[in-house]
Amino acid sequence: MTIWNTCPAVEQVPGRVSGAWVFSGTRIPLFALYENLAGGATVEEFVEWFPGVDEQQVRTVLQHEANALRTALAR
Questions:
Q1: What pLDDT score does 75 carry?
Q2: 30 in Cβ contact with 23 (< 8 Å)
Q3: What is the pLDDT of residues 56-69, one digit of tens each?
Q4: pLDDT digit string, tens, across residues 22-51
Q5: In the beta sheet, which residues pair with residue 64?
Q6: Residue 54 in contact with residue 47, Cβ under 8 Å?
Q7: Distance CA 68, CA 30 (A)
Q8: Radius of gyration of the chain measured on its C-alpha atoms
């Protein structure tokens, strides 16, 4: 499981989007990114479809997840 509180591109605010992790400054939950990527969307399309999220935030989230997976696999 990824520890999101160390990722600067996301935040979790009690009472906002039921406490889900969202892109900082938005109400767009992280799961929206993964659902769209799994559906074939590109990062560029996601950013276009979800105003308020920028490409750097998406890339930071993806790198954070990759680092978490790398750490988990090294154990």
A1: 82
A2: yes
A3: 999 999 999 999 99
A4: 999 999 999 999 999 999 999 999 999 999
A5: none
A6: yes
A7: 15
A8: 12
Structural domains present in the chain: 8-74 (1.10.10.10)
3-state secondary structure of 41: coil
Secondary structure (3-state) at 25? coil
Spatial separation of the C-alpha atoms in residues 66 and 58, rounded to whole Å: 12
Cα dihedral across residues 29, 30, 35, 41: positive or negative: positive
- Tell me the C-alpha distance between 53 and 57, whole Å: 7
| 50 residue type, one letter | F
- Structure tokens given for 35: 């659902």
HSE-CB of 30 using CA atoms within 13 angstroms: 21
* C-alpha torsion sign, points 41, 47, 52, 54: positive
Distance between CA atoms of residues 38 and 59, nearest Å: 16
In the chain, the amino acid numbered 29 is: P
